[in-house]
From TrEMBL:
Gene3D superfamilies: P-loop containing nucleotide triphosphate hydrolases. It comes from the Bacteria. Belongs to the ABC transporter superfamily. InterPro entries: AAA+_ATPase, ABC_transporter-like_ATP-bd, ABC_transporter-like_CS, P-loop_NTPase. It comes from Rothia koreensis. Keywords: ATP-binding, Nucleotide-binding, Transport. This is ABC-type quaternary amine transporter. Residues 9-243 form the ABC transporter domain.
Length: 356
């Protein structure tokens, strides 16, 4: 069955009322199989409550939730919880257990031997890019990014078709966060799980999500669609303002930079003038020099990247020339800002049919 063609999880008229407030209001939402679906929205709009109703950590007041077509009420709550990986904000690791024991928690609960649990934990550390040498450490001895990876490994250990992730990357710095996001996309490509991911960051939502549900005040979904649909055609004023003013550059995330020429580093006409790109021994960019000054910085353009990557690379480069790199980070050539702007203008024209 092709991915995304059936529904892994379906909310049907689901509401959740707490004593003093309605957290979720009449939610109807079909989450496709095998894709990453993101719940995004401001604080307090019912994202966590909705996520927790999937595995019955929270019970709805009204409505039904189907998992692969079956009412989740038909499975005992403790069984359902164990059958879905769950990553919470702040990683939620058990402080008195080692990294390996934390990761092996669910397999151990399912009766896997200590030895097998441990070897599974080590494999999963490889999967999420954690050094095996960290296996015997305790959570307090990890960096924020490492702790989040342990949380992801622990969730994967459930070997479940569904993975629930509640703001798993919000406590780490932007660089580590971008790293974790890339890893998650890579993992998802190889593991083909259904992932439901909660964030209040629209950038994270459109980077990770193949479907995005924008939650609004009072636990209603204001829009559900592909990231591109949400950026291009916000359903109402709330979504438009949540998506924000720089949505033009966000949209370029979905446009290929394939037409932007990469100029060879040894081009004879040297359109970059006196600027010189310094390379390390492996041929990776190390900085820009001019006169006697060297400046580091500038995001790199990964070969095959998006028009937004290309734009970032030229806007952040000290010389104004973006540096294209291959998969190993070696410099391939340079992008001119004029070429990138022309490509952005062509993209705009092809979308709106006007205005080159
Ligand atoms: N156990 C609870 N008892 C009472 N009210 C609750 C409970 N859990 C959540 N709420 C309320 O329900 C609403 C939705 O909360 P929820 O945690 O789902 O929001 P959220 O979208 O995840 O917010 P955030 O982005 O801040 O995590 C809030 O008004 C919250 O105060
Ligand atoms: Mg929350």
């Amino acid at each position: 069955m092709p991915l995304g063609k059936t529904d892994a999880i379906e909310f049907i008229g689901v509401s959740k009322e707490f004593e003093s407030s309605t957290a979720v209001e009449n939610l109807d939402l079909a989450i496709p199989d095998g894709l990453i679906t993101v719940f995004v929205g401001p604080s307090g709009c019912g994202k966590t409550t909705s996520l927790r109703m999937i595995n019955r950590m929270v019970e709805p007041t009204r409505g039904r939730i189907l998992i692969q077509g079956e009412d989740n009420k038909d499975t005992p709550a403790h069984e359902l919880r164990r059958s879905m990986g769950y990553v919470m904000q702040e990683s939620g690791l058990m402080p008195h257990r080692t990294v390996a024991d934390n990761i092996a928690t669910v397999p151990r609960l399912n009766g896997v031997s200590k030895r097998d649990g441990r070897s599974r934990a080590l494999e999963l550390m490889d999967t999420v890019g954690l050094d095996r040498g960290l296996a015997k450490r305790y959570p307090a001895q990890l960096s924020g990014g490492q702790a989040q990876r342990v949380g992801v490994a622990r969730a994967l250990a459930a070997d479940s078709p569904v993975l629930l992730m509640d703001e798993p990357f919000s406590a780490v710095d932007p660089v580590v966060r971008a790293d974790l996001q890339r890893e998650l996309i890579r993992l998802h490509e190889t593991l083909e799980r259904t992932i439901v991911f909660v964030t209040h960051d629209i950038d994270e939502a459109v980077t990770l999500g193949q479907r995005v549900a924008v939650f609004a005040e009072g636990g209603r979904v204001a829009q559900f669609g592909s990231p591109e649909e949400i950026l291009r055609e916000p359903a109402d004023d709330f979504v438009a303002s949540f998506v924000g003013h720089d949505r033009g550059t966000r949209r370029l995330t979905f446009a290929s930079a394939g037409e932007v020429p990469i100029r060879p580093l040894d081009a004879e006409d040297r359109p970059w003038g006196d600027w010189r790109l310094a390379l390390d021994d492996a041929g990776r960019p190390a900085g820009w020099s001019i006169d006697d000054r060297t400046m580091v910085g500038g995001s790199l353009f990964p070969q095959g990247g998006s028009l937004r990557d290309a734009l970032d690379s030229v806007l952040s480069s000290p010389s104004g020339w973006g540096v294209a790199v291959d998969d190993d980070g070696r410099a391939l050539g340079l992008l001119s800002s004029d070429d990138v702007m022309d490509a952005a203008a062509r993209e705009r024209k092809s979308r709106y049919g006007v205005g080159l």
